[in-house]
Amino acid sequence: MNFFKQAQQSVNSAQEAIQGAANQLNETVTQVHQTTTEAIEQGKTKVDNLIVLGVETTAQAKAHSTETLQQKATEIAAHYNHFTTQVIAISTSGMTIAYALKDLPQTAADLAREMPKIAHRLRYKAGTRMTDLSRSDADVMNLFNKIPGTSKIGDSHRNISDFLSNKHGSHIRSHHNGGSNKATNIVWEIAAENTSRHAQNMTGGEQVYIRFHNAFESLLQNSGTIAQLGLAATGTAIVTQALVTAASYALDLYRGDITIEEFKDRIIAAAVSAGIATPLFFLIFIVILALFPEFGIILSAPAVVAGFNLLFGIGIAVPIIQSIIRHIEADGFGEEIAQDHENWVNELNRLIEVSTQEMQRMTEGLMPEFT
User: Fold this and answer.
1) pLDDT tens, 328-349?
2) Secondary structure, 3-state, the chain
3) What is the residue range of 145's domain?
4) Are residues 183 and 260 both part of a single domain?
5) What's the whole-model pTM score?
6) Are 312 and 250 in the same domain?
7) Does residue 23 lie in a domain region?
8) Residue 11 domain flag
9) pLDDT tens, 194-235?
């Protein structure tokens, strides 16, 4: 009897244990389900937040990219306008000085014809003695070329005469020590300083001092002429830059890409920029011309004058060409021309790409020879 009671109790205990385990399992499943559901909901929320954030970030990036591109375009335009201003400033300054020098004598015969007194002094005097031979044509012109270029602009005959009025042809290596009368051994020096040196050779420091002294004296003597040339160069550059800017942005104004106020502001800014840049370049040219008289030979050469004219033309033409290209790309001349322009650009890019690939292929073909 006791055995059956114990068995019944064991069965009841087992049922209770099983029921408890089932209840525990149900609770565990329910908890896992709740946890999973919460995790899924949180994940969906996070994903939704990430999507929203991504969309917002993409929109911001796009806006920032557009703004950056516009800013870059503005910067490129500013640099381009600055470049154009520099080209016009340099070419105008160079042309003004080159034209002031272009009619100078180029040979000893020209010098004797146009400035006979100066030519006579360079050939027979300027450091020579009574018993010395006269100088060759080459030495005469080399001595002439040692006169600062700033004394050769304007009324060159009078300015050169003024510069030489208190000068001696001083020997770098003294005549007493065997120095020759060739132009390579002669510099233009204040007469009193040459006399005080007596038979001593000229030092390197003295030669540098003489060069700077002559340049400074020439600049002072011809400051009026230099100022007039500088004003002429600056005025020409300002007017030219203003006209070029107006022409280059006229089509943009016509299309409505810029307002009339922006149009005026760009013209004024370009004129101001030219008015600042040109005097600086002009002064650089003038100082070099005073310190290094040989520079005058380069500036007065016909090829250099033609080069400055070409540079001036480029400074005018390029902005206008760029304006026409912008107008074509904006269908300003009609869709057909814009399409032709696009086709031409694409064909040009294709040819460049093909040429690049061909060069790479040829290079790769040659590489084994070097390995």
Assistant:
1) 777 666 666 656 656 665 666 6
2) CHHHHHHHHHHHHHHHHHHHHHHHHHHHHHHHHHHHHHHHHHHHHHHHHHHHHHHHHHHHHHHHHHHHHHHHHHHHHHHHHHHHHHHHHHHHHHHHHHHHHCCCCCCHHHHHHHCHHHHHHHHHCCCCCCCCCCCCHHHHHHHHHCCCHHHCCCCHHHHHHHHHCCEEEEECCCCCCCCCCCHHHEEEEEHHHHHHHCCCCCCHHHHHHHHHHHHHHHHHHCHHHHHHHHHHHHHHHHHHHHHHHHHHHHHHHHHCCCCHHHHHHHHHHHHHHHHHHHHHHHHHHHHHHHHCCHHHHHHHCHHHHHHHHHHHHHHHHHHHHHHHHHHHHCCCCCHHHHHHHHHHHHHHHHHHHHHHHHHHHHHHHHHHHHC
3) 108-221
4) no
5) 0.70
6) yes
7) no
8) no
9) 999 988 999 999 999 999 999 999 999 999 999 999 999 999
